[in-house]
Amino acid sequence: MPFRKESLEVQRLRESVHELSILNEIATAISGVWKIDEVIDLIVHKCVKHLKVEQSTITLLEDLDSETPFQTMVRKIDDTESQIPYHFGVQLSGWMLHNKKPLMVNDFESDNRFKIFDEANFNIRSLLSVPLTIKGNMIGLVNLFNKKEGKDFNENDQRILSIIAAQSAQVIESARLYKQEQTLRAIEEDLRVARQIQSQLLPKKTPELPGYDIAGYSLSAKEVGGDYYDFISIDEKEMAFCLGDISGKGVPASLIMANLQATLRGQVHSTTSCSTCLQKSNTMLYHSTDIAKFATLFYSTLNIETHKLCYSVAGHNPPVLMKSDGSYRMLETGGTVLGFLENVEFEEETLDMEIGDVLTIYSDGITEAGDHDEEYFEEWRLIEVIKKNLGKTCNQIIEEIIKEVMDFSKGGDQNDDMTLLIIKRNK
Amino acid sequence: MKISEKQQGEVTVLVLSGDLINVKMEIHPYVKKLIDEGKKKVVVDLGKVKWFGSTALGSMMASYSSLKAAEGEMKIANPSGKLQTLFYQMKLQEIFESFDTVDEAVNSFK
Question: Taking the complete model, does pTM exceed 0.80, yes or no?
Fold first, then answer.
């Protein structure tokens, strides 16, 4: 059969069919993929293969915010070991964001619009870049570098790449949103676990001590904040109780809380001195936690026969000890926070719990409720509420305090865990 | 939050500003970088800080500890009344040496 030269139309048809099959292959390949890295990988591979280029990348723009004008989220390099210099990628994104149309450059060296800061090991000779847009918003760009066999990019290439970009944009956006959702779920799960850990650590019931009324309560913030309180029975006559606040929030704070609880419970039976207990607990916490973590703590022991209360405060809000006549003092003796310095000397004070005395221990979620730009609840309001309700049971006093704090915050978000521990001598 | 740095002789002054309550903490990593650069005399200017969240405080404490371990020192300048009360309550006022002005803090290094 004699060889016949194909007519131009047939040639064009053949090319069109070829193009369509490329586009179809790409569309099919990416339609079922959910993971964003896989989607981008696929698109880049297909581009390199079918459009006969040396390299291809996809750049995605993160959501804009005031601190970082834009951030390229993913840069996928295919093929050779060489990499597109980072600064160039940023410049190209900037150009595209500004011009919002395809860019075709066939003689890169003589183009004044881009200056490569560092040569790296990649020479850009020709470039074709097309924006990825969703509903008119640019979410990224698809880039082809160096058409093979020394050829130039042409209108055809631009047309095909534009179609690929249109196909890909939605798929990429869906994959990106899916990833965001996964991240959110992970954070929610973290909070759920933190809340579970913390609630397990808090006392399930309040001990009953003859002659005393005791109540404890903790209301955790949405992003669980690390408040902790505990009752530790030493013997039939003596009980230790404490209330603290771990720095940070979420699961890391919960784990330190568990650590601190175990440490204190371990110390309580080997020493009766509050200051020694804190000193040893501090050193242990220092060695077992991150350098930027710490805890504030109020620690005390109460003897229900002698009615002696011994206490030491480690950087925590000073509790209020109020007499039946409404006079009060703040308990401030102690030392600095736990876990900051390796060796800390703590001072302790011993005082007598008299009939009618009310000791209110609290976390800063109470006194710092409110807005730091405006006003916050502060100690004086807390003291007023206690004074007003001195005759009531400890549980009732707690209820009143929480109510006042909620009213004060006027339904604003709870910033931090709110915790209270109140002890009253009745007989 | 923002950290801006300036040098006053041998002393590096870090001016903190912005939200120090809910953001990712950068103070300690920044100070570690300074230590790597040999800058171990640090004054933290708190004039523009309204309040510290516990994570920010932790970052300050970690910075103090890292500098101490590297035989350097961290001092504080210009804390507001509220911050002073906070440091006092946490008994940090004896640990974080504090001055009313940046100049006083810088001069104390001599």
Answer: no
